[in-house]
Amino acid sequence: MELITQSAKLGGAYDFISKFEQGFDTTLHPIQTARLVNNGGTHPLKEMSDKLEKQLEVSGGEKQRLVASRTFMRLQSNKIKCVTVDEPSSALDPQGEMDLFRRLRDARAGKTMIFVTHRFGHLTKHADLIICMKNGRVAETGTHEELMFKNGDYAKLYDIQASAFLPEKIGYEGPDSISVA
To answer: What SUPFAM superfamilies does its record include (predicted)?
Structure first.
């Protein structure tokens, strides 16, 4: 249980899990993969399904924190050498995003971590390698500093996002099919 608790704290899920009536024993809303047809009788699976349907649902940000917690749980294994995460912070608030990426950076020793994201945030300046994609192809690669110096697609995308926070910047209207991996 200690490993689960520690992983929940690292993933940012501990606080809201602790507020559940059953804590870590709470059953979240399951994914329904089959439908039971009731022909008037009772069936043990139908009774179990009825109980499960009344379980808790969580927000998008809470789901991301649970996924992050599972990731931290797996990172405890020396067998994990590569972690790939798609949009790990898309539903997190800025503080949650910063905290998550700091903890992931702290846990990465000896592991390759690949993050697919459209948000530049706290991750870009810490990445060993950024691969900027355009129309499904690699447009350019490098560190944040190298890509900003090149002033290519990555720099344009970065400036678009930064312009929302810098009053002296005017938004860039360029290709809308560029993403960063």
So the answer is: P-loop containing nucleoside triphosphate hydrolases
Band of the pLDDT at 60, cuts 50, 70, 90? confident
pTM, entire model: 0.69
Which is more confident, 18 or 38? 18
DSSP for 61-118 reads HHHHHHHHHHHHHHHTSTT--EEEEESTTTTS-HHHHHHHHHHHHHT-TT-EEEEEBS
The alpha carbons of the chain give a radius of gyration, in whole angstroms, of 21
What is the C-alpha to C-alpha distance for residues 145 and 158, in angstroms, rounded to an integer?
11
Strand partners, 84: 114
Q: Which residue reads 């997190």 in tokens?
A: 92
CA–CA distance, 13 with 66 (Å, rounded to integer): 6
Say how many Å lie between the first and final Cα of the chain, rounded: 35
Q: State the Cα–Cα distance between residues 77 and 73, nearest whole angstrom.
A: 8
Amino acid at 57: E
